[in-house]
Design a protein that fits this description.
By secondary structure, the protein is of the alpha+beta class. 20% of the residues lie in helices and 20% in strands. The strands form 2 sheets. Strands 4-5-7-6 form a 4-stranded antiparallel sheet. A 3-stranded mixed sheet has the order 2-1-3. The radius of gyration is 15 Å and the shape is globular. Bound molecules: zinc ion.
Length: 164
């Protein structure tokens, strides 16, 4: 059972859900994104994302028209695999298609770029063996990228922290 916080971009509120690992993520349609897929190897008891990121997934999955194997979406900052800042820590990035062939990954990357639903799609030169796309909260506010800062008591999702 996971506690899942979802920032609802339409109401500007955080929502709380409790879901089993085999259940679909909040706002997911067609059970195409289960909690266990969203968390991947993360051990975090609490997960978070945004409604907009879930809707972007729904749209991409619909446009692609078939299964997209999900390696993970969510990571805590200490769970490794990424540098100090990552959209995965905000729960709005997806690393997918690890089990696809290169040709399938290229097709999915192009689909993700052309779909227009994502803020960012990583080029194949950076992630040749998976496809990364994300729906970040805001465009970059600093050279190293704009990241939401969520603190105890946060009800909004609009603060930015830039490294000094
Ligand atoms: Zn990634």
């Amino acid at each position: 059972m996971a506690k899942i916080l979802v920032y609802n971009n339409d109401t500007n509120r955080m929502e709380t859900y409790y879901k089993g690992e085999d259940e679909a993520m909040p706002y997911n349609t067609g059970r195409t994104l289960k909690v266990k897929e969203f968390r991947g190897s993360s051990k975090s008891p609490t997960l978070w994302t945004s409604k907009r990121a879930m809707q972007a997934w729904n749209s991409q999955r619909y446009i692609w028209g078939g299964a997209i194997p999900v390696g993970f979406a969510f990571k805590r900052s200490w769970e490794g695999g990424h540098s100090g800042q990552s959209q995965h820590y905000a729960g709005v990035a997806f690393d997918v298609a690890q089990t696809f062939t290169n040709a399938q990954r290229n097709a999915l990357r192009n689909s993700a770029k052309n779909s227009g639903v994502w803020s960012y799609v990583e080029p194949a030169s950076l992630t040749p063996t998976w496809v990364h796309f994300d729906k970040r909260a805001l465009s970059s506010a600093c050279a190293s990228g704009g990241f939401p800062q969520v603190k105890r008591g946060s009800v909004r999702y609009v603060h930015l922290s830039c490294p000094r």
